[in-house]
Amino acid sequence: MTIWPKVPMRNTDDQHSNVSRRDFVRTTAISIGGLGAGIVAGRGLASAAAAQSVQPPAAADARGAHEKLCITVSPSGQGSFVPAPPGPRTIAAHADAALQGFNAGAAIVHLRGERVTQDPKVPQGRRGPNIENWRQLTEAVRSRCDIVINYGSSAMEPAVRKPLLALKPEAGSFLVGHHYGGMAVTRENQRQYAIDHLEAGVLPEVEIFHTGDLANLNALIDTGLLRPPYCVTLFLEYERDYYRVPATLLQLQSMLELLPPNTHWTACVRGPKHLEMAAHAIALGGHVRTGLENDVELAPGRPARTQAECVERIVQLARSVGREVATPREARQMLGLPRKPEKANS
């Protein structure tokens, strides 16, 4: 087994000092002072409008406004601001990127290993994982920190991705509609994903790209194959040839309106509105995914250059309004981890 060098790690129970509020004021003026102050998952626009006149923002919540913030770092993608290093990425470099995020304050890592092929002639969902690469990457990260490992394996068909669950990640992503790259997921495959996760004891992290996905999520919950607390990531401004959903407060609110009770939700936004939407998510009791692949700008025209800078910026936003940041241990408690394997009812 590979022995990784010891590196300094943060104390996951340390408290970060508060920072200036100036960066938060502009981006959250709407969500704290306007309709957004009354909007939380599962409450209607009308009830939110009524609530804002009688209820301060800090009182809002049915679903986690007072929970600590779980930050997910996604170190596996590159984004457009930082050039990719020449040659294939090493396991050590990949693990280092995850550790950067952890040391900066991330509780969860969205980890993606290599595929056995990237041949465009092979359909996206059938480009299977290089299991040995994923195993080594998982061991490298776990040997260096206690961050929650969530496999980013959504764009694979059930039979192709099922072997990954045997590596025992604590969570894994899957789709209930279409991937932004165009891969379609049938109802049968959605059900199979849920069964595979249930039987492996791996938390499903359901990726949501539009409100139609939310209808499918609720239908899947009705089958009894998903267990609360539910875990979803809401993607906005993921521009590709297939479609994009605008990163606006109204769009986020419409998605929250359709979430079931007892849902742990995370916002993931790419591009110039990353910090603005992260601020709205923080104010509304949600959580945030960040990383270089999100093309994060620390300030207009000033792109992030490291995974640590991305996470640190989200920590600053949270501290600005007094919202504490969760440790991996606290994130596990919120998500009901570890999950126990269960036999799915036929």
Structure, explained:
- With 346 residues, the chain is of the alpha/beta class.
- It has one domain: TIM Barrel.
- It is built from eleven helices and ten strands.
- The protein has helices at residues 22-33, 45-52, 91-104, 131-142, 158-165, 187-200, 211-222, 249-257, 274-283, 307-320, 328-335; strands at 71-73, 108-111, 148-151, 171-175, 203-208, 230-236, 263-269, 287-290, 297-299, 302-303.
- The chain has an eight-stranded parallel barrel with strand order 1-2-3-4-5-6-7-8, surrounded by six helices. A two-stranded antiparallel sheet has the order 9-10.
- α9 links the parallel β7 and β8.
- The longest helix is centred in the first third of the chain and has 14 residues, at 91-104.
- The chain is globular, with a radius of gyration of 19 Å.
Strand content: 5-15%
Please bin the fraction of helical residues.
Answer: 25-40%
Number of domains: 1
Fourth-tier CATH superfamily name: Aldolase class I
- Global structural class: alpha/beta
Number of strands: 10
CATH topology: TIM Barrel
Shape: globular
Number of helices: 11
State the order of secondary-structure elements, H for helix, E for strand: HHEHEHEHEHEHEHEHEEEHH
User: How are the strands of the largest sheet arranged?
Assistant: 1-2-3-4-5-6-7-8
Low-confidence stretches: 1-8, 12-65
CATH class designation: Alpha Beta
Termini separation: 40 Å
- Major sheet description: 8 strands, parallel, barrel
Computed over alpha carbons, the radius of gyration is: 19 Å
Give the overall average pLDDT: 82
